[in-house]
Specification:
Layout lengths: L8 H18 L4 H12 L4 H7 L4 H26 L1
Helix pairs in contact: 1-4, 3-4
InterPro entries: RNA_pol_sigma70_r4, RNA_pol_sigma_r3/r4-like
Protein name: RNA polymerase sigma-70 region 4 domain-containing protein
Length: 84
């Protein structure tokens, strides 16, 4: 069974604030990290393809992706703590 839910103004404000936090965290990334983020998560490319396009090894690109994800998590957690 599918339940319908009407989004409230408060829901939209919370979503907007969360989106701003995510963009703020993404702004802390280097251009290379943003390229990997965009390629992997937005364009749905493989690590192999991203590595090839950037003239880097698969292992290096995979390591950079993992490091970038940890960096984003840390930045978002910091933003949560700073709001308290």
């Amino acid at each position: 069974m599918i339940y319908s839910y009407k989004f409230t103004v408060e829901d939209e404000v919370i979503a907007y604030e969360k989106t701003k936090e995510i963009y703020k965290a993404i702004d802390t990334l280097s251009e290379r990290e943003k390229n990997i983020l965009n390629g992997f998560y937005i364009e749905k490319k493989t690590i192999k393809d991203i590595a090839k396009e950037n003239g880097r090894s698969y292992n290096n690109t995979r390591y950079e992706k993992d490091k970038m994800v940890k960096k984003l998590k840390k930045q978002l957690q910091k933003q949560i703590i700073d709001k308290k």
